Amino acid sequence: MANAEISAQFEPSFISLRDELISYQYLGSGSFGTTFKVILPHAESIAVKQVCVEDYKKLFQHEANPMKKILREITILEKLSGGGGCNFVLKYYSHWLEGPDAEDFDKLNSTEDYSSSGPRKNWLFIKTEFCNGGDLME
Question: Is 57 annotated as a binding residue?
Answer without folding.
Answer: no
